[in-house]
Amino acid sequence: MTYAKIVGLGKYLPPDIVTNADLEKKVDTTDEWIRTRTGINERRILKEREGSSSLAYKASLIALKKAGIKPQNLDLIIVATITPDTLFPSTACYLQNYLKATNAGCLDISAACAGFVYGLTTAWQYIHGGLYKNILVVGSEVLTTITDWQDRSTCILFGDGAGAAVLTQSSKQGFMSADLGADGSESDVLSLPAGGSRMPASIETVNQRLHTIKMKGTDLFRIAVRAMTQTAENSLKKVGLTGADVDMLIPHQANKRIIDAVVKRLGLSFDNVYINVERYGNMSSASSAVALCEAVEENKIKSGDIVVVDAFGGGLVWGSCVIKWV
Ligand code: UT7
């Protein structure tokens, strides 16, 4: 049996901060509304037009260093992003070039906020199946480039950042279980309507602001709570565990109230969940990647702990991984 575990994590957050007070000057909102409805105090913004690959590169260098693995020894690079540098080539290819990871295959995953969980699960299975030994998984987003800065219901939510994980073959079982799900019939609840083959870029699409995130927030909130609870229960059940066995939940950081509801439904204590939404807002695929990295940096995860990474996003998609920290 070939097992897989995480041997290195890294993160990169661009230094420029947008506070709630800054947003009060742009749209009809208040710091109080944003904090009480979302839990967000501030978020990061990448001011330079560098693309997701540049954030991914900085996070990956740290993860590889911690793992003690040279880029040349990577077999595969997976980048989860909904803000790729370009539609093609993939962001993973740009990252491969920056890293000089010349022996790695490259692929991007489009699974919105669940992208890091989809990436971890894919990497785990490539290792488990014996095809590859060392895989880099990155969640990297520059969401501020697809944010409608005139829409107060969405522009308060999103931020930029990247988190990276290096997975390697192991004699001990790290990854234990995963559950991935989707509901394509709800694709209009959260989407970026234009810029693809369905609605190519035109003067009209730009004028109608169709290259920015459109979201039915209240519908999404309800579905997110249900789906994140259910997927965590599903992946735990596959290995005979329940919420009571979870030492650390790493949830997608869309809204503090969503996290609170999921924690309550899973029967967890707030000591067993990592939350950083107040500092970064929603960074889509980067949210759970950065949260996992920070939980480890802050020694909130110790050897032998059961960690669940749990996410939900546009698609709709959701997923969770159960990892024993070895
Ligand atoms: O990454 C995964 C995907 N994202 C999510 O999971 C996000 C899920 N949804 C949410 O987090 C919440 O639904 C939001 C934070 C987006 C909105 O919170 P809500 O409690 O669902 O508010 P609402 O949309 O029901 O709006 C309540 C009121 C409305 O006013 P009226 O119609 O009651 O007069 C909105 O117009 O709040 C108003 N509102 C605002 N007021 C001040 C909406 N945005 C703002 C704002 N500032 N920024």
Describe this structure in words.
This protein is of the alpha/beta class and 326 residues long. The chain has helices at residues 20-24, 31-38, 52-67, 91-99, 115-128, 152-155, 203-207, 217-238, 256-266, 277-280, 285-297; strands at 3-12, 17-19, 42-44, 76-80, 105-109, 134-142, 160-170, 175-182, 190-191, 214-215, 248-251, 306-313, 317-324. It folds into 2 domains: 3-172, Peroxisomal Thiolase, Chain A, domain 1; 176-324, Peroxisomal Thiolase, Chain A, domain 1 (3-Layer(aba) Sandwich). β4, α4 (91-99) and β5 form a beta-alpha-beta unit. The longest helix is centred in the last third of the chain and has 22 residues, at 217-238. The chain binds oxa(dethia)-CoA. Oxa(dethia)-CoA (UT7) binds next to α2, α6, α8 and β12.
What is the fold's blueprint, element by element?
Blueprint: E1 3-12, E2 17-19, H1 20-24, H2 31-38, E3 42-44, H3 52-67, E4 76-80, H4 91-99, E5 105-109, H5 115-128, E6 134-142, H6 152-155, E7 160-170, E8 175-182, E9 190-191, H7 203-207, E10 214-215, H8 217-238, E11 248-251, H9 256-266, H10 277-280, H11 285-297, E12 306-313, E13 317-324
Parallel strand pairs: 4-5, 4-6, 11-12
Antiparallel strand pairs: 1-7, 2-3, 6-7, 8-13, 9-10, 12-13
The protein binds oxa(dethia)-CoA.
Residues 29, 33-34, 37-38, 113, 152-153, 156, 190, 217-218, 220-221, 224, 254-255, 258, 282, 312-313 line the site of oxa(dethia)-CoA (UT7).
